[in-house]
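User: Predict the complex.
Assistant: Input components as received:
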Amino acid sequence: MGRKLLLEKAHVEGIRTYEVYRREGGYRSVEKALKSMSPDAIVEEVKKSGLRGRGGAGFPTGMKWSFLAKPEGVPRYLVCNADESEPGTFKDRYLMEFIPHLLIEGMIVSSFALGSNRSYIYIRGEYAWITDILEQAIEEAKANGWLGKNILGSGYDLELYVQRGAGAYICGEETALIESLEGKRGNPRIKPPFPAIKGLWDCPTVVNNVETIAAVVPIVNDGGEEYAKIGAGKSTGTKLISACGNINKPGVYEIDMTISVEEFIYSDEYCGGIANGKRLKACIPGGSSVPILPANLLLKTAKGETRYMNYESLSDGGFATGSMMGSGGFIVLDEDQCVVKNTYTLARFYRHESCGQCSPCREGTGWMEKILLNIEQGRGKMSDIDLLWDIQRKIEGNTICPLGDAAAWPVAAAIRHFRDEFEWHVNNPDECTKRNYGLAHYADPIYVPA
Amino acid sequence: MSEQLLKVTIDNITVEVPAGTTILQAARKIGGDVAPPAMCYYSKLQGSGGKCRTCLVEVSKGSEKDPRPMPKLVASCRTTIMDGMEVKNITSDRVLDARKGVVEFLLINHPLDCPVCDQAGECHLQDLSYEHGAAGTRYEFQRRTFKKHDLGDYIQLHMTRCILCYRCVFTADQLTKTREHGVLDRGDHAEIATFIEKNLQNDFIGNVIDVCPVGALTDKTFRFKNRVWFTKPVDAHRDCDTCCGEVQLWMRGHEVFRVTARKDEWGEVKESTKGGTGWICNTCRFEKKQVSDWEIEGPTKVNRHSVISQGHYVGLQKPEETMPKVMDGRSPKLLMDIHSVSEVNKPNIELSKLDRPAHSTDFNQ
Ligand SMILES: Cc1cc2nc3c(=O)[nH]c(=O)nc-3n(C[C@H](O)[C@H](O)[C@H](O)COP(=O)(O)O)c2cc1C
Ligand code: SF4
Ligand code: SF4
Ligand code: FES
């Protein structure tokens, strides 16, 4: 059984309240940090821990923190990205809903490390009830002296605010989030300058994911080296995975990143195998933006090695035969699922969520959606498949923010690995309107554990 | 202290520019085909650029200190020069391919109603498509339409033609007291509109017509009155307490059809002789349509950006010839100058001397 750092106490009765959280050892990291550590020492521990951003890009958090500009007399900000809107990702929600004080604790320690006296939690608009939970937790923390002026007599002041978004996926992109937080239209900014130099109100800012900030708590409590011992290679610590799709036990799991994908899908501790006795066909392992993998490439890399649930192993083979850890939204498709339909659904999402600033993303996402719908409904042509490929190629890398890439990659991967399924739709226009599932043969050559 | 100049090489041509210059500005300094097309960037509008992606270029060498190439194509309008940087624009197949893609994206939902569009002839999207686009379209769906919004008596909005460059938004923010229009909604359903149904009538709001690269915002007082290539631009000025009063009158015979600000070879509003950008006020633009309102200076020097340059005006400004330099001394003869071979256009006939529209008999003298 893997070690748990974040969700270990999540199911203790009443952990949402301050009293229980504190009794279970909560806020120890704040005591330790404010009484015995300098801000730089905390940054150093985070560096040593090897913690990588849990929001999707996997950028080393310690390094990100050390890039923060520190000009004299200018405030700095820490913003927690709780906009979680990626289809298939619901891990932050779970953490905030069940153990909100962990995020508050992480925010206090991280804000202290970065020298922020006003920090923000920018939360997805649809998570209205979690906003209430967080605000309640902040009230409690304040009442008990963990927030406000001169915390624990250390001379350090911190105010923490929760800001709700208005329901836009794009506001999860850090610079769009900052714009939105400033009260503007959530358009991503053009970088450089990066938020570490010019972020919120043009001041140096760090934006981190909920899980990243929560992970700072065990790092400060136990030390960065201790944290780095968990996991494998450059994938240190534990990771929350939100598993969904055709599995027996959908839900949020905390894994240490040494287990194999196979174990994660089939073991009873995690997903518990494919539902209804079906076979595994494909999986999107890191949230809707990352490339889909057919079952054989999911369980084993192209070199025939076992694939593990960590950053390096999931991206082994690049986009040709690999995928990405992304935000940890693990979407499983069984043999009955149609990849064309699935890709169309994703394309529709990105078309709807594009902010519309740059032409390739604004126009390309809509175009891809229309073509995919045609193919899905048996109105496609063979040339449409190549056209789709060309459109995604012209979007990728040519946009302001990574949403363009995120819209292009799923389409590219679907065509790369499941081209014959697209062709089948074109060749069987009547059949594909009558049956709403794809071809089963992808599941055939795949090894199914006993 | 003299300002330090940085070296940058674009398409094999090296220029020296002050620190903080963007790749696009440096390329414009070289001129000609080396300057990337820019549909959203506007040097006089703070914060503009980065959106349309037509100006993408390849940075093949980051700088003298860090020679690594940049992995992605970058928006030249928002990327500043480093010393020793090497940039490829028209010498990069990647750039040309990506640009062709961008043009295609800009056109898939464009109505292509040039025959009834007042911008035709001075539309940057026309130029862009002509220079970088493909001949046909691969888009087989219905083009996007919008609910019509009325912006009042001065400005006509055709949302279907808009490329969402945001220039008009920046203009309203930076030139007028209050911005009354903006971008509503997002993605491919985003639109320029007022909230809720307002007239645009700020003193300087007419300038959105001049900054709009396409026919999305046009002059309602000129609507369907004439084609720009039948009118002749004349520089004129008047004493105005609101603006610089320096304009171009677009005339046919003795009739003033349209008044605009003066523009440079990149299609941007020029500096005024009184300093500052030569934005003009609504009164000058919309209300002064008599020759007697103005003091005429003479025919405008027109440039390649305008179809009326085909009419052999006095002092036509030819763009810098950069091709031989880009091609390392070779001078490809692929681009034929149709004017020198055409039977119809005789360079010895000076159309600007006529005070009426040119007629076929004028060519047969
Ligand atoms: C379109 C888009 C949506 C994003 N949505 C989220 C999100 O919902 N939550 C999140 O933490 N990061 C999201 N990100 C990533 C953020 O931009 C940023 O990289 C992240 O918050 C950094 O935090 P980390 O270093 O802790 O991962 C998104 C990025 C893009 C391009
Ligand atoms: S890539 Fe898409 S979402 Fe990102 S800035 Fe461009 S249009 Fe907006
Ligand atoms: S109306 Fe014109 S200036 Fe305004 S965003 Fe559209 S194209 Fe740009
Ligand atoms: S001009 Fe540079 S992106 Fe539009």
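DSSP finds 19 helices and eleven strands in chain A.
Let me know if you want any component modeled separately.
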